[in-house]
């Protein structure tokens, strides 16, 4: 059984110098793994050679042609394209499968391998062929190739391959296994940014903490508009670093994070060689920390370029200046180094959390201190131990009387340190709204993802926004802290790969206690906004069970849109629809009792319904999320009033309108 991973966005443009400009992408086909992966952690330092030796870099890709550049640098090769790994065919050759992109055959793996070689005189290539001529690979082959690369004594694995992260993604264990064996895993961040509209879009496997996620720069040195951005849905920072995202051949110039990753893989090989030549030990953590700490600063957010632009000399300087214990340079890097993010607006009384990624050389214990006049508002563990990579939870409560907050969070060990800078200018909110995303597993359903522009629209209009990420918080007492709650994509369908031999389709229904809490919250004057879809995307039975107290229900079928959203112009008189000329819609119809009012119709179908109780409670239910997503609020659907409609829903539910 197989599943298609969501492909990155691709473009084809003219190029005056070569006649061809492509973003090279590989579409991945996910095949179920027959069994689990056993991970044996061994975090000992590597690299004890006293002389510079070849550094083995595995290129897990479409194969490598033995051409003028690569022929003397390929030291091992194996094809994983066979029915054993889930393919319909057998291809024992290890030459490039030349997958098609935009009607052109692209020697993807050969270009990636050549990029490694051109940027690292000390690298030799281990060729793991997993991508077939149709541009697909299987997860079973990818995982087998990673394990094989470890067996082949590779020090670096390059994965210029990506997919949308899945629930229980089996690639995480493979990445962690390689990391535990002393192997650096470098992966392309993805080509799914859509010129900044998409929000969080980091691909698997680069999304995992133990992989280096590489963003792309264009030919002018600016962040490429296709390069995937972070942070992740789990609220930690990606990408990690940025590098040039293009490769030139005699006939074409190719663009994509596929070609940024091998530059970083080459830099890893050079740092390993540099360490060995100088009688230094290294670990994956020490190389990563040196790369990130030594990156050239760039005037762009960390969720765009990570720690900065790849700077090999800068990384070497970090290694040279670091304190050494038993010939292992002690380096620490924290990611990000500033919070909140550039688009985040905090208000008085807000709670804020972020997961800090920390990379270091070896197991270190850190004392965490906060230097601030407002020290008591921060919540961090006073002592943490990090073994090459780890997460430190950062949390704070913005005081109700605060005007300006600055702080420096210090992580100090006996031999290495790192710091995080905080600066906040909180204001008084006009309303407080919660985004309940505790019953969706879609990675994009966060304020960092497809609701980023909705977050910006609300906060720029003095509305505080807090995410409810844990269903245990759906109690009457907690809900009552907010003027309104937006239930974004509740009960959507997803596939659970936790047991990869037996994947299952599932949703996250609301418990009886949660439903009771929401009903009481509404009847006591709270505002509730519910977005749904047809049964193709949403477990409509579970969502309607939640709505049973409200008099609303969502239809099973898509009644408008389906592909591109329709532009809806037929609205009915209501404070929410005043000034709304058109909005985007693709989804199901809404049914309700006679106490509710239809705010917009499509033929005989109601698309948005609203109702108000005598106790002041207000509810709006719709069968789509299209008019509140990033593409709608940036005008990409062609509708004119999505931002107005979104804001007025918030204002009406909060009792302001």
Sheet of most strands: 7 strands, parallel
Please indicate the percent range of residues in DSSP E strands (runs of 2 or more).
25-35%
Mean residue pLDDT: 90
Structural class estimated from helices and strands = alpha/beta
Q: Might you state the CATH topology name of the largest domain?
A: Rossmann fold
Shape: globular
Q: How do the helices and strands line up, and which of them pair or pack?
A:
Elements: E1 2-4, E2 12-13, E3 21-23, E4 29-31, E5 55-61, E6 74-79, E7 100-101, E8 104-105, H1 108-119, E9 123-129, H2 139-151, E10 156-159, H3 171-180, E11 184-188, E12 211-217, E13 241-244, E14 246-248, E15 253-255, H4 261-277, H5 284-293, H6 302-305, H7 312-321, E16 323-325, E17 328-330, E18 332-335, E19 338-339, E20 351-371, E21 378-379, E22 383-397, E23 405-412, E24 417-424, E25 431-436, H8 452-459, E26 463-468, H9 476-479, E27 484-487, E28 494-496, E29 504-506, H10 512-523, E30 527-531, H11 540-546, E31 552-560, E32 566-568, E33 583-585, E34 587-592, E35 597-602, E36 605-612, E37 618-622, H12 630-633, H13 642-653
Parallel strand pairs: 3-15, 5-9, 5-10, 6-9, 10-11, 11-12, 12-13, 19-24, 25-26, 25-27, 27-30, 30-37
Antiparallel strand pairs: 1-4, 2-3, 7-8, 14-15, 16-17, 18-20, 20-22, 20-23, 21-22, 23-24, 28-29, 31-34, 32-33, 35-36, 36-37
Helix pairs in contact: 1-4, 2-3, 4-7, 5-7
